Structure formats: C-alpha cells, structure tokens
Amino acid sequence: MSDLWRRCLERLEGELSAEDLHTWLMPLQAREDANGLQLFAPNSYTLDTVRGRYLGQIEAMLLQLAGKPCPVRLEVGSSTARPAAPAKTAAAPRVATTPTAPAFNHNLDPHYTFETFVEGKSNQLGKAAAMQVATNPGRAYNPLLLYGGTGLGKTHLMHAAGNLMRERNPDCKVLYLRSEQFVGSMIEALRAKSMDQFKLRFRSVDALLIDDIQFFAGKDTTQEEFFHTFNALFESKQQIILTCDRYPKEVDKLEPRLKSRLGWGLSVAIEPPDFETRAAILLAKAHDKGVAVDEHVAMLLAKRIRSNVRDLEGALNTLAARANFYGKPITTDFAEETLRDLLATHAQAVTIANIQKITAEYFNVRLQDLLSKRRVRSLARPRQIAMTLSKELTEHSLPEIGEAFGGRDHTTVMHACKTIRKFIETDARMRQDWEQLIRTLTG
Ligand SMILES: Nc1ncnc2c1ncn2[C@@H]1O[C@H](COP(=O)(O)OP(=O)(O)OP(=O)(O)O)[C@@H](O)[C@H]1O
Question: Could you read off the pLDDT of 219-234 as tens digits, one per residue?
Fold first, then answer.
C-alpha cells in the first residue's frame, strides 16, 4: 500500500465513522506516482461514492500530509493490474532521443457524458447549451456558466461537454479543474517561482473547464490571475466553461469586473429535478452500475429524497453495497429498512411550516399575513410561491396544503401551482426567487 495513502487512512480514522471507513475507503487500493495519487475502487458505485462524499476530505488530508496539493485520480480497477512504470520505460532505447512531451492530462471523467445524463425540465436548457458549446467551442456561448445547488449535475454536464469536444476532435486540449485545484496550482507556482509555466499551462488549452468558482470568493490574487487567464482565452476564442453554486452576481467577495465578464456569455440555472426525472436518473444509474433496482424502489427513493441527485445516488450506492454484502435483492422493504435513518432525515428536512416561514422571511412579509385571506399582490404572489413549493417539495396533497394556508380550497392551490410554474418559465426575476428559495429549503 502507498505510504501516503496509509497515513491518510490513519488520519481519516479520526474523522469518519468506522462503518464508512470500512465500507468505502478500506477497499481502495492506492498507487503514488509523479502526478499524485491514483486510487482504484473495486466497482463503480464505490468509486462514485468516494468521489461524491470523500474526495474533498481525502485531498485536504493529503495536502496536510504532503505539504502540497496532491491530485487524486479515481478509477475502477486494481493497483496491481498495471505495472507502476510503463513497459516502454524498461525497454528504453540506448540511443539518445528527443524526450516526448508528457501526455496531456485532461482530468475528464469518461463516465460523465451526455448519454449518461438524464434530461428533464430542470436541466434541459443546461444540457442543450453544453452540447452547443461542445460542438462549436469558443463560438456558441463563451463563457458558458452553469449554476445551481449542489449535486444537480453541473459537473457532469461540464465533463460531458469536454468529453464530446474530445470525441469530435481528439487533438482538442480540454482542461478540467476544480477551482481548489486552480488555486493550489497557483500557490505552488508562486512558491516555485514558475508563474510563467502556470500561465502557459492555462492559456494554451482549447477549452478551460473550472468547477465551483464560488471558491474564488475572497481570494484576491487568484481572482486577479483568473481574470487575466479569462481575458486571454476569451480574446482568442478558446472556450471557457464554469460552474458556480449560485448566480455569480450573488457571490460575495467576487470582484465586480470578474462578475461582469462571467455574464458575457450564457448563464444557465440547473434546478433540482422533478419526481419523474429523479426516478429516471435513479433507474439509469442503477442500470449503469449493474444494480437490479425495479421501478417501485426507484419511485420510493425519488419520492423521499428530493434534495439533489448526489444524495439519491448515495442512497443507491448504499443499497447496492448492503444488498451485495447480505446477498439480498433490493426490494422496497429492503430499501426502507436499510435507509431508514436517511429517509427519516429527508422527511424532516422540508415541511409546509418551514416553507411558509422561509418564504415569508424571503419576501419580507409577516407569517400571519402570508396565511391570511388578504389578496394584495405583495402577499398573494409569495403565498402562491409557498403553496407551489409545498406541492413540489413535500408529499402533502392539495387539500392538505390548502388547509395549511388558512383553510383554502384545493383548486386555489392547483391554480397557484399553474401560475407560478408559468411565471418561472417566463419571468427571470421570478425564476431567481424560486431557485433561491429551493436552495435555502433543500440546503
Ligand atoms: N440529470 C442527471 N442525469 C444523470 N446523472 C446525474 C444527473 N444530475 C446529476 N447526476 C449525477 O449526480 C451526481 C452529482 O452531480 P454533479 O457532481 O455533476 O453535481 P454538481 O451540480 O456539480 O454539484 P456540486 O456543485 O456539489 O459540485 C453525479 O454522479 C452525476 O452523474
């Protein structure tokens, strides 16, 4: 086992539960090389879980242990399956040759493609924009900015665009980085006085994909450097794709000149998927991972886990791991039993009372006015939004929601839902309010 990985596991023992450590991290095999640490997962659902839940923590721990950023590459396989050094090196010719440039590391995840991305109303526009950018890099929309809450598929779409660019043109240099990696590389370059190389690395690509740029907030030197990189790429029509956890104008401590540039291209919101899309994603993921899950189980999870796709996928991975361990089929009873605590947490997360309170606060109206019979527009709209949120984020029926809003009829709730849905599609301001409320309510 790699010494660095062994030390990392020892430290993580203090941070993670024994069950998590044994289920997800212990089965990994590790290999260290000049590019960082390569971790091999026994199967794709272990890989997805490690990537989704623990990668940040692992990289932070490696940074502490190694004293410098140590990129982690995850793949399904075994560290003994391939020799540590390529066979060619062992049989190197004795005559002097021009050293070949190291292969360009795109950092793209080959699993994240448009084929494996399930389309629904919540992400339709984002997917279409990403596809356009991939088929016409630097010319369709530049930059393309995908924003929205956590675990909704922004990273997936970004990789899908990069993968498609590479499929269409294998010479296309696409570089994907999480923003922490951009910051880490910059700090390293400053330390090693190799800023010229740093600049060249980022400016010589055909497409630069940077994930979670909200992480740049408050980091002035990074923003300065990124600003110049952005300008250089933009001017020479190299594609830029970015993601952010909210509309960039809402990110505090991001320089105004950067915010303004981010708005030069196209910004698309990725919203939480509706019930049908959640169920479809779950079935597609189960199929990809070779896990036998029927529609009843998919519907159970889609109904009870509304927060985001990552949580949904996490639940599927846990189910698959436990079913595998106990040698049992995944039935609805098995799912209810295995995920009891998780489902209970999600059930508590969004209640009508909570939606009413948060919506009243958001629109700066009193809760009792929101629930009153008064029909002035300043109250009617927030009330309709709160009713629609209750319909979409809880399992309550229309009559129950009507009752909770001062004893209104179920047709009033139905009308509210229709009105608000239409507004969200046509009115940008309303869409922003809606997305912000969803983010606040689903964390
Ligand atoms: N529509 C979808 N179809 C298939 N898989 C999806 C979809 N949306 C999300 N996922 C999956 O959910 C997981 C989380 O998605 P992703 O990492 O892209 O989220 P994100 O929006 O970038 O979140 P964060 O902001 O936290 O990085 C991934 O495994 C991704 O494949």
Answer: 999 999 999 999 999 9
Q: Which residue's CA is the nearest one to ligand 1's atom 7? A: 153
Mean pLDDT of 256-284: 92
DSSP three-state, residue 291: coil
Atom of ligand 1 nearest to the CA of 245: 25
Q: Sheet holding 239-244: strands in order across?
A: 174-178, 207-211, 239-244, 144-147, 266-269
In ligand 1, which atom is closest to the CA atom of 157? 18
Q: How far is 1 from 294, CA to CA, in rounded Å?
A: 39
Q: What are phi and psi of 239, to 5 degrees?
A: -75, 140
For ligand 1, atom 13: residue with the closest CA: 310
Ordered structural domains, the chain, with CATH = 3-79 (3.30.300.180), 124-269 (3.40.50.300), 275-349 (1.10.8.60), 352-442 (1.10.1750.10)
Q: Is 155 annotated as a binding residue?
A: yes
Block residue for tokens 């991972």: 289
Give the Å distance between the CA of 156 and the centre of ligand 1.
Answer: 5
Ligand 1: distance of its center to the CA of 192 in Å?
A: 35
**Could you tell me the pLDDT band of residue 429, with boundaries at 50, 70 and 90?**
confident
What is the spatial distance between Cα 321 and Cα 327, in angstroms, rounded to a whole number?
A: 10
| DSSP string computed for 187-229 | HHHHHTT-HHHHHHHHHT-SEEEEE-GGGGTT-HHHHHHHHHH
H or E element in which residue 146 lies: strand 144-147
Please tell me the pTM assigned to this model. 0.69
In the predicted structure, residue 174 carries a pLDDT above the cut 70: yes
Answer yes or no: are the C-beta atoms of 258 and 229 closer than 8 Å: no
The tokens for 132 are 């356009």
What lines the ligand 1 site, CB under 6 Å? 48, 112, 116-118, 123, 150-156, 212, 243, 245, 281, 309-310, 313
> Would you say 88 is a known binding-site residue?
no
Give 364's contacts (C-beta < 8 A, 6+ positions apart). none
Distance CA 203, CA 3 (A): 35
Averaged pLDDT of the chain? 88
Is 153 marked as a binding-site residue? yes
CA of 155 from ligand 1 middle (Å) equals 6
Cα–Cα distance for residue pair 213/144, rounded to 1 Å: 13
Which residue among 310, 317, 442 has the greatest number of ligand 1 atoms within 8 angstroms of its CB, and so is best to mutate? 310
Q: Complex ipTM above 0.90?
A: yes
Q: Is 52 annotated as a binding residue?
A: no
* 50 alpha carbon – ligand 1 mean position (Å): 14
